[in-house]
């Protein structure tokens, strides 16, 4: 049977999961740390399961806790949406929206256009966290994520937003020193320096592939510089440090003004996807739906 104490305990648990410890959760809820501890203890007793593992360094959800949060979060969001709709639909998009985002997309595509989103929803606070891995949305306290790449494993709900081509580019200064390769296979020559990009999923540099009309050519390239940030890779390429394989999204101006030269326009058939992730298959909260609509309409 639902009661106010159970609902309050669930809200306290969500606050602890989002903030990472009892003291910060207490501050956000206007309670004392001991009050938060008692509420979690009552909830664990009610459920018959331990919800957090606690030590001096961290407070993290147990497996039972992660599953419980994944199931109740959309239900709480539905209650909040229903309450907000009673007072007006625009007020449903409110509170804090915490989004895990790919660095290139955040800096290049989101940041210049976020003002219109924030203006549309003045009751919303956006917490945009840039990092190179998806992680666990529930235990890390994220409402959604926007990331490049193919989803690695089942878990969060995924929604493909767009695809962008993978190009092979170099700066005019690099080509002046090393010559322009006339075919992708020429990059196997150690005389050519390629900027390698680390796959966050494996920790190893991505393999280099070239796609044309269904044909895939794999080339073993050479490089002394390994990077894990797209913006740094593009700046290094424009500085003449080597040949890179950037995403076409966002480098239009550099191609137009000649800072970058596309080397193999007939071998640019590889695409890289951008996905949105959110934790549950239930209807996502209004604030998540509003953010994804914004990304699709204004950015993607």
Notes on the protein architecture:
With 300 residues, this protein is α/β, with parallel strands linked by helices. 38% of the residues lie in helices and 21% in strands. It is built from ten helices and 13 strands. The protein has a five-stranded mixed beta sheet with strand order 4-3-5-13-6. It has a two-stranded antiparallel ribbon with strand order 1-2. It has a two-stranded antiparallel sheet with strand order 7-12. A hairpin with a 2-residue loop joins strand 9 and strand 10 (215-219). Helix 1 (4-19) crosses helix 2 and helix 1 packs across helix 4. It starts with a helix and ends with a helix. The mean pLDDT is 86.
Task: Note the topology.
Elements (H helix, E strand, L loop, with lengths): L3 H16 L2 H8 L3 H15 L4 E3 L4 E3 L1 H24 L8 E7 L1 H8 L3 H7 L3 E7 L13 E5 L8 E9 L3 E2 L1 H7 L16 E3 L10 E5 L2 E5 L5 E3 L2 H9 L13 H5 L4 E2 L8 E8 L7 H14 L1
Parallel strand pairs: 3-4, 3-5, 8-11
Antiparallel strand pairs: 1-2, 5-13, 6-13, 7-12, 9-10
Helix pairs in contact: 1-2, 1-3, 1-4, 2-3
Short account of what is shown:
The chain is built from 10 helices and 13 strands. It is α/β, with parallel strands linked by helices.
Key terms:
elongated, five-stranded mixed β-sheet, 300 residues, single chain, two-stranded antiparallel ribbon, alpha/beta, 38% helix
Poorly predicted runs are: none
Please state the average pLDDT score.
86
Order of helices and strands: HHHEEHEHHEEEEHEEEEHHEEH
Number of strands: 13
> Helicity range of the residues?
25-40%
Largest sheet, described in full?
5 strands, mixed
Which overall shape is indicated by the principal axes computed on the Cα atoms? elongated
Broad structural category:
alpha/beta
Question: What does the radius of gyration come to?
Answer: 23 Å
Strands across the major sheet, in which order? 4-3-5-13-6
Q: What is the terminal-to-terminal distance? A: 44 Å
Specify the number of helices: 10
* Percent of residues in beta strands: 15-25%
């Amino acid at each position: 049977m639902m009661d106010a104490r159970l609902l309050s305990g669930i809200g306290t648990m969500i606050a602890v999961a989002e903030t990472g410890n009892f003291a910060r959760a207490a501050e956000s809820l206007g309670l004392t740390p001991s009050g938060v501890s008692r509420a979690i203890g009552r909830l664990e007793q009610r459920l018959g399961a331990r919800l957090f593992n606690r030590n001096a360094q961290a407070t993290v959800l147990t497996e039972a806790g992660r599953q419980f949060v994944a199931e109740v979060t959309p239900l709480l969001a539905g209650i909040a949406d229903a309450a907000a709709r009673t007072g007006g639909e625009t007020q449903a998009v409110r509170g804090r929206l915490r989004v895990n985002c790919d660095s290139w997309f955040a800096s290049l595509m989101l940041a210049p256009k976020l003002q219109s989103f924030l203006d549309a929803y003045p009751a919303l606070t956006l917490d945009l966290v840039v990092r190179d891995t998806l992680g666990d949305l529930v235990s890390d306290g994220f409402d959604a994520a926007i990331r490049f790449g193919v989803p690695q494993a089942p878990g969060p709900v995924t929604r493909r937003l767009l695809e962008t081509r993978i190009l092979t580019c170099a700066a005019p200064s690099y080509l002046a020193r090393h010559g322009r390769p006339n075919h992708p296979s020429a990059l196997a020559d150690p005389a050519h320096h390629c900027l390698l990009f680390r796959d966050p999923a494996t920790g190893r540099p991505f393999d280099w592939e070239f796609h044309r009309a269904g044909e895939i050519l794999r080339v073993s390239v050479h490089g002394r510089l390994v990077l894990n940030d797209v913006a740094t890779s593009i700046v290094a390429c424009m500085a003449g440090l080597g040949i890179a394989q950037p995403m076409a999204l966002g480098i239009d101006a550099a191609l137009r003004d000649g800072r970058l030269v596309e080397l193999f326009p007939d071998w640019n058939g590889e695409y890289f996807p951008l996905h949105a992730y959110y934790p549950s298959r239930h209807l996502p909260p209004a604030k998540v739906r509003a953010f994804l609509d914004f990304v699709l309409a204004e950015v993607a």
